[in-house]
Amino acid sequence: MHDARKIKVGVLGATGTVGQRFISLLSEHPFFVLHALGASHRSASKLYSHAVTWKQTRPIPSVVRDLVVEECKPECFAECEVIFSGLDADVAGPIEEAFRSAEFAVFSNAKNHRRDPNVPLVVPLVNSSHFAMIPQQRALHSPPLQKGFIVTNANCSTTGVVVPLAALERAFGPIESCMITTMQAISGAGYPGVSSFDILDNVVPYIGGEEEKMEWETLKILGGISESDDGVRSFDMHARQPLRVSAQCNRVPVIEGHTECVSVRFARRPPPSPQQVREALVSFTSDAWTASCPSAPRHTIFVHEEPDRPQPRLDRDYQAGAGISVGRVRQCQVLDIKFVVLANNVAIGAATSSIINAELAVSKGII
Ligand SMILES: NC(=O)C1=CN([C@@H]2O[C@H](COP(=O)(O)OP(=O)(O)OC[C@H]3O[C@@H](n4cnc5c(N)ncnc54)[C@H](OP(=O)(O)O)[C@@H]3O)[C@@H](O)[C@H]2O)C=CC1
Ligand SMILES: N[C@@H](CC(=O)OP(=O)(O)O)C(=O)O
Fold this sequence. Notes:
The structure is a single chain. The protein has helices spanning 17-26, 48-51, 62-65, 89-101, 134-140, 156-172, 196-199, 210-222, 274-282, 287-290, 312-315, 347-363; strands at residues 7-12, 32-39, 70-71, 82-85, 105-108, 149-152, 175-184, 225-227, 233-235, 244-251, 258-266, 301-303, 324-331, 337-343. The protein is α/β, with parallel strands linked by helices. A 6-stranded parallel beta sheet has the order 3-2-1-4-5-6, sandwiched between helices. Strands 10-7-11-14-13-12 form a 6-stranded mixed beta sheet. α1 packs across α12 and α6 runs parallel beside α8. Aspartyl phosphate binds next to α8. Keywords: Amino-acid biosynthesis, Methionine biosynthesis, NADP, Oxidoreductase, Threonine biosynthesis. This is Aspartate-semialdehyde dehydrogenase. Belongs to the aspartate-semialdehyde dehydrogenase family.
């Protein structure tokens, strides 16, 4: 998919949970080369190995160990073409905009720009077609941009559920309603995150803003792009075939991997059988794989037959955390079909998605 050119990249929020996963993955990437790291003023000017509280199972890659952490200012990243952002959402908005204005390609995990009508919200296994919004985003910037843009990836729980939903819509037409109950890992809240006193021996039935994000982001991701007669593009928010989504989000004492119980009703009657649903999920191939993105999972969705899978401890590393696990596909007595999804929140739910998005942008000639 790519010539021999190496592309220098920077990571913002490099000391955080998502930033560390970016570094682990990018240190072995075939054409993205880690070049600069940024974090808060608390970490800036320190060697990365001194600034970070490293929580990955593999050691700190040697390529970054002795890099000096920079402040998150575009001039400190001048040699980079691509910026991956794992910034805290409290600060991500204006920092990412400053990098876009300075003509960087920015791939963000933060929620700040997901609702922007000109920013693609891309789950790379689902809606790579939304990159078509980038020329308009550049043109509407003041002054217009040549190279800069922002692409965000989705909330980690949204990412897990939209992949099977997209597979089902591709096979059986629009989904009319979807009910989701999540069991979310503590790594979703960053480090140190939820205190052990709150989460051990416990379930917390509230994650601020999460349900609203799932219910809204799903519509943007599964919707298409419409174009008016005068050529203005907009995300159609699944409006042509309205989809209703209800989410209930819970924090559970799991380190990594979000589990979600999902029930769906299809618009088309009669609905597919559980066996037809299993076959559609297994045969789903992502655009990212078709585009030969090196970080895309070969098998997008694995469907378990065992009645007690997927489980976070056993299944979160499926395809290096890039694949989605589904199990317990069965009839639902209220809607049509119900099943369980497991997605690695830090990999495909965060860093891996951004990296595949950047690979897609390279394959489409946008970078
Ligand atoms: N964890 C997950 O599963 C997912 C996270 N996300 C999103 O990704 C982003 C990162 O999450 P996560 O890694 O969990 O968060 P962490 O809290 O672990 O890390 C936050 C990072 O932001 C940096 N930072 C904080 N304040 C500033 C500042 N003023 N200027 C520059 N840098 C700053 C921190 O640097 P320092 O160490 O110096 O303080 C740190 O590197 C968030 O927006 C989150 O919502 C999205 C999907 C999944
Ligand atoms: N809120 C998610 C992680 C996250 O940061 O989501 P978002 O990027 O949508 O704010 C969780 O706690 O599991």
